[in-house]
Write a structure and sequence with these properties.
Blueprint: H1 11-19, E1 24-26, E2 31-34, E3 38-46, E4 55-62, E5 70-75, E6 78-84, E7 96-101, E8 106-111, H2 127-140, E9 143-144
Parallel strand pairs: 1-9
Antiparallel strand pairs: 1-3, 2-3, 3-4, 4-5, 5-6, 6-7, 7-8
The structure holds zinc ion (ZN).
């Protein structure tokens, strides 16, 4: 579980960002950065909420464990929300989400058992399944994806 700088997003802004009626949106294409055992795909998001800037949706595709991708919605340089697929954390088993807690900079991990079922544990997901998972994540964090945004890892 991560620990980040506190108060980077105000509580009511975080609420509006993740659950409000006005959605944020992307404009561009995923850019993949190659690392030793993973590729990180990143796309900028225009944020609809006052006081929220530098929005990015980030997917970490791990080549040795491709069934455990992670997704982050980074806002004001902290992960407002992130998801770990087919992984465990601090007593939460399987696919789970982490929500940023402004007051402490900590996170609130919680189960997400009905999301991301397109990526079976111990499987080798296709690019179409990874794309579907990315879209599931974008929808979860209230971000609309533009046409042509997707680039295979
Ligand atoms: Zn996690």
């Amino acid at each position: 579980m991560g620990s980040y700088t506190p108060n980077m997003i105000r509580p009511n802004s975080l609420q509006a960002l993740l659950y409000g009626q006005i959605r944020s949106f992307t404009d561009g294409q995923l850019e993949w950065i190659e690392k030793a055992n993973s590729s990180t795909g990143e796309i900028f998001a225009v944020l609809a909420v006052h006081g929220c800037r530098n929005g990015r949706l980030i997917m970490n595709h791990r080549r040795l464990i491709p069934f455990r991708p992670t997704f982050s919605f980074v806002v004001n340089d902290v992960p407002a929300y992130r998801v770990c697929v087919n992984d465990d954390t601090n007593g939460v088993e399987g696919t789970h989400g982490h929500r940023y807690i402004p007051a402490t900079g900590g996170e609130n991990p919680h189960s997400l058992s009905t999301n991301f079922l397109m990526i079976e544990d111990r499987s080798r997901p296709t690019n179409a399944e990874l794309k579907a998972a990315f879209e599931e994540f974008a929808n979860l964090v209230n971000v609309d994806l533009n046409d042509g945004y997707w680039v295979d890892p």
